[in-house]
Automatic annotation (TrEMBL):
Keywords: Repeat
Protein name: Teneurin-like YD-shell domain-containing protein
Start and end residues of each Teneurin-like YD-shell domain: 4-94
Domain of life, per lineage: Bacteria
Lineage, uppermost ranks: Bacteria, Bacillati, Cyanobacteriota, Cyanophyceae, Oscillatoriophycideae
InterPro entries the record matches: T6SS_VgrG/RHS (IPR050708), TEN-like_YD-shell (IPR056823), YD (IPR006530)
Kinase as UniProt keyword: no
Length: 106
């Protein structure tokens, strides 16, 4: 398998060429956040909040949603399959617990 990459002047990957998957192109906003990723006509779109946290990732009809607290810590991920993952943090912002569909995973 052969890989090739092209980057812009600030280091954002613009294209990835792979012998098996073909060419993937990437588009960024003015804050260097990935907006779209396209591989073989399949487009993945990303949205962000004002702090740069990812709010969603959508590929076709499948969307993953991310929720953040006021300290910009990821507190919930809801993937397209609906299997919700939640995170709990201590006072220092260290992740201390997680749950998948309400079941603790440590």
């Amino acid at each position: 398998m052969r890989l090739g990459y092209i980057y812009d002047y600030v280091g954002n990957r613009l294209t990835k060429t792979e012998s098996v998957e073909g060419v993937t192109t990437y588009i960024y906003d003015n804050n260097d956040r990935l907006l779209t990723e396209t591989t073989n006509g399949v487009v993945t779109v990303y949205e962000y909040d004002d702090n740069g946290n990812t709010l969603s990732r959508q590929q076709g009809s499948e969307e993953t949603v991310y929720e953040w607290n006021d300290e910009n810590l990821l507190v919930k991920v809801i993937p397209a399959d609906g299997q919700e993952v939640s995170y709990v943090y201590d006072a220092d912002g260290i992740r201390v617990a997680s749950t998948v569909d309400g079941v603790g995973t440590e």
